Amino acid sequence: MPESPDAMMSPIPRFMPLPGTPPLVEMKGIAKYFPGVVANEDVDLTVMPGEIHALLGENGAGKSTLMNILTGIYQPDKGEMLIDGYAKSLASPLQAIAAGIGMVHQHFKLVQAFTVAENIHLGWAETPIGASAPVLEARTEVLARRFNLETRPSARVSELSTGEQQRVEILKVLARKARILILDEPTAVLTPAEARALFAALRAFVAEGHAVIFISHKLEEVLEISDRITVLRGGRKVATQDAADCTVKGLARMMVGRDIVLADMRARPQGAGPLAAMPVLALDKASTDGSGGAVALKDVTLAVRPGEILGIAGVAGNGQRELSQVLTGMRPLSGGQLLIDGQAVAKADARAFAKAGIGHIPEDRLKSGLAPALSVAANAVLREYDKPPVSARGMFSPRAALALARSIAEAAAVAIPDFAMPVRNLSGGNQQRLVARREMRIASRLLVAAYPSRGLDVGAINTMLRYIVELRDAGAAIILISEELEELLNLSDRIAVLHEGEVMGVLDNDHIDIERIGLMMGGQRQADIKAAV
Amino acid sequence: MIDLRTLSRRGFLNMGALGAASMMLPAGVTRPALAAAPLAPVKEEEAVVAFSHVGPISDEGWTWAHHQGVLAVQEAYPKLKKVLEVENVPYSADATRTFRQFVSEGASVVFDTSSKGDFLYEVVKRSPEVAFLECDGHTVEGNLGWYYIAHWYPTYVLGVAAGHLSKSGRLGYVASFPVPSVFCSTNAFLMGARSVNPKATLQTIVINSWFDPQAAAQAGTALIDNGCDFLFGIMDEAAYLQVAEKRGVWAAMWNTDIRRYGPSAYVSSIIIDFRKFYVDQVGKRLAGTWAPGEFILPLGGGVDRDAWGEKVPKEVAAAADAVRDKILGGWSPFAGEIKDASGAVRLAAGQTMSEKDLYDWDWSIEGISGLNA
Amino acid sequence: MGPYRLQRFPSAAPGIALLARLGAIVLALLISALVLALTGAKPGALALQVVTASFGSQFGLEDLGLLVTPLIFTGLSVALALKIGAWNIGAEGQFYAGAFAASAVGLFLPVAEPLSLFLMLLAGLVGGALWILIPTLARAYAEVNELITTLLMNFVAVLGVYYVSTGPWRAKGANSTTARIPAEIPEFFGSLHWGLPAAVLLALLLALALARSRFGYEVRLAGSNPQAALYAGLPARRRLIAVMLAAGALAGLGGMVEVAGTVHRLQGGLSNSYGYLGIMVAVLARGSLVGVVFSAALMAFILNAGIILQTQGLTTSTVLAVTGLILFLTAIGDELAHYRLVRDARA
């Protein structure tokens, strides 16, 4: 990250608790067991007033279980909890809310068809009875100003960006007088600018003597925002340290128990041929209509060659979704051309694109890449169900499907106890790995990977990126859409920057200037920057 | 007010006279019993008697009247093993299930108080040891008979009253379905009225239900709006009586005495009474003398007019009752010449309709609108 | 805290689910028995009566079979539509439409009985499919919610059949039915006809076809997550149309079988709400087409018990209350089946 945390933060004075002030939350010796799994054991967590406390750990490290205990969803099998120095058992989420503990989950729980103001007031004892929409909106406006969380009270939630939805979720929790705010992966869905605004709001919140528990995998961001960091691994606490004493490397080691190298992966294996001249896929002044108020693509011109990784940088919500849909035949063009191997493709047809060797790791795997309620096996064969051995002459062979699913799971290094269980029972990371492996099987020409590392922990991210490099080395083209600049810089041969549906420019990764990417993400064109410099 | 019990008893006393006038006897009237071997006698202690009703026994109408018959059977044969009574039996395959269940329970005699047709015959065919009686039926088998009431006579009497009471000469009728009992009811009613006022007409609205207070009330309102000042109908409830009361016109009803829903509008009712018939039939079945047949209960012997309403002028009541006495004396009002709604002569002068003709009547006489076969 | 705890699992083990169901039914019956005993009835005798009358006599078994048959057809109709994510609330209307079309053929097309039956079958299928055609196209092309449209079509069909059977097609002298249809589905056990084995076979074949065909896979995928269907590029709209029309045809076939096998005349009350009960049957079957046969059997038993109890002097409302209690507790039992008693994994 280019800037130091202190430089970015507005000068809000830190809250200093008086000596002898009890912690807001103290969890001692917490244990929670599930059949065959130790979810938490012997975990201590102390959160002081005025602090942002990060909870760090890989998928399955026990972060969610611990927070579910703190919010009254689970009862601990062992251990005790003190709130404000008093022992308290939280038997239900309602009791937790009453105790001032509120949580914003990774998957929002808002009513899409309601307005922001209605969502804020839904199920809230303080909602005035029979209040009209303007009254609710005025109350929401007041709350938003008080907590420094900008929203549009009269807008429907379905019209909001994810960042805006998250602000509504936070506002909803804060309005109910939460003193301890728990955020689960809050920045996973935010643009860098939105993340900065969130951090500022969190700082202001803890400055009043409240506390934030911040769950994340992103090490830099954890260092940037938090005062202290607790690392969990395998359900146990590894350490709690002051953020000032931590380094990215040290944290990563504590999380996974070994050293992790995030490094340049652009190097090709020896003997790899030069990049072919003919692009696998090209867009020529491609435009498309947006849906639901989303930004459409305007005159996008891009090309990707076999064996090349083209990175797409940009703040989320600037046309990435539409771009990945256009590239995979899910969305028709309203103007311009899409060419595969130099041939213009007239019709958007996702099946034909897949058959042509184009794989797609979608932005939201549960929503579009998988059928959550169907079995692991059914999901694993989604790309190859209609050809032998899974299908022949219209007949579908469950046995062949199972065999294919097994081999995909094996390649993805995901242990699956029962291929008949719904795929939603798998953890997010395992879902992502399965989807990635499934897509890599068919992506002989091109893989469109949208945010492939979103929601994964450090170890899993590394595996995922290695998959992508493997595929590139095998001669496929990759289009990598990401919000992690580091990831893009580590992998991409070239980086295109997207802003409001337009390509601001395509940069060669050899002599790249992060400042320049930042300016392009903000809407300046490559040509204009050159002129200005 | 006439006590129903006295009335029926008097009715039965008149039976001999009716028989002499080739009128209905309550035993196998239009057709002699089939020559099948009679069902063996059953001991009262071992006998099960079953009734299936179309509506709830609390309906104050058709089903309530049949329920009085059930009570009479229980009173007459207190030692019966079981009396089964099922309400709200739909006109569907569920009716078959109910009848089958009766048979499974060991019923000796089954009364279907509202014709279930095929749904009953299905069970009749396969239960030769059980006696079945279908109200408003059409089929006689070795173990199946049917019964009904000669409602056309009291209806004619009410028609006479209507002819006197209606100023406009426009009569209204809330009908259930275009079925013979409705054709016969409308025809008899208008013939009675025309015997007083030859220009009288009858407008009919079919609501496709025997029990639908809302539709009946709407039909009643529409008829009054069309200028009718006397409402009649064939409903198992009192909705159009209430409409008549509110709008200040006359109304005559069916089944039971429900004058309290419209005391000023109430003229009279077609009162039905199956008590004697049910007790008789059960008795014959127990004794082993039951035989299937077609039973039409006569005026005074299962059907009659109710006591006249409080607002009905004495001279109108007397005029109508004079006609009733005439009928009890053996006179039939249903004699030629009768023209149908298209004006064609359907019954030549000098001819008289038989009870079976009346029961099966399926065309409208001249002057009736709204009812098509 | 003891060494054992209850824990919810995302999927229920089949054995436990079955046990929970049986437990729910037993509990519902016990509660009903208690209430009946309090009102002075003899629950033991009633229960014995229900069981012997249902299973102990040919009449009872025939009644069950005749009730199960239409429920399987409408249950399959609703369950099949659910496979592609559509709620067919209109099985009632399609049942009537199928019965109507079949009756038209049976009454007015003077051909030999086997041919007549075959043409009635086709007419039933087409009638049911036509009745869901508009809701299907509205859903496929205009995203109009099929829940409402299929429901509204019910009223049209019910009243339409009512009209023809009390009006133009009414048999002379009949209250509200057409004449008897000459062609009849042959009977094999008393009045039980071949419609029942056909229905069971159809359920098995459909389940097999969905599990073992490419089409079936596509239907399951598109039904489970339309977004994923778009992502996979499968012709989701064509599958939706095909499946919804097939669902309508199934209900229509149910109407044909009812009219040609059980009732033999077209009339207003032909369906004892079989279409609506089919929704309950499908929900109880939890999406399994084979399960529809069993939940239809349960539903038929409950309905039949209702008739038996009525002859025992229980009022309709009591019977309805017992029925509701059984279904209610079954739903709770289904949820509880997700819980298992587990031993703490404490070292």
TrEMBL record, chain B:
<dbReference type="InterPro" id="IPR003760">
    <property type="entry name" value="PnrA-like"/>
</dbReference>
<dbReference type="GO" id="GO:0005886">
    <property type="term" value="C:plasma membrane"/>
</dbReference>
<keyword id="KW-0732">Signal</keyword>
<dbReference type="Pfam" id="PF02608">
    <property type="entry name" value="Bmp"/>
</dbReference>
<dbReference type="InterPro" id="IPR052910">
    <property type="entry name" value="ABC-Purine-Binding"/>
</dbReference>
<feature type="domain" description="ABC transporter substrate-binding protein PnrA-like">
    <location>
        <begin position="48"/>
        <end position="295"/>
    </location>
</feature>
<feature type="signal peptide">
    <location>
        <begin position="1"/>
        <end position="35"/>
    </location>
</feature>
<dbReference type="InterPro" id="IPR006311">
    <property type="entry name" value="TAT_signal"/>
</dbReference>
<protein>
    <submittedName>
        <fullName>BMP family ABC transporter substrate-binding protein</fullName>
    </submittedName>
</protein>
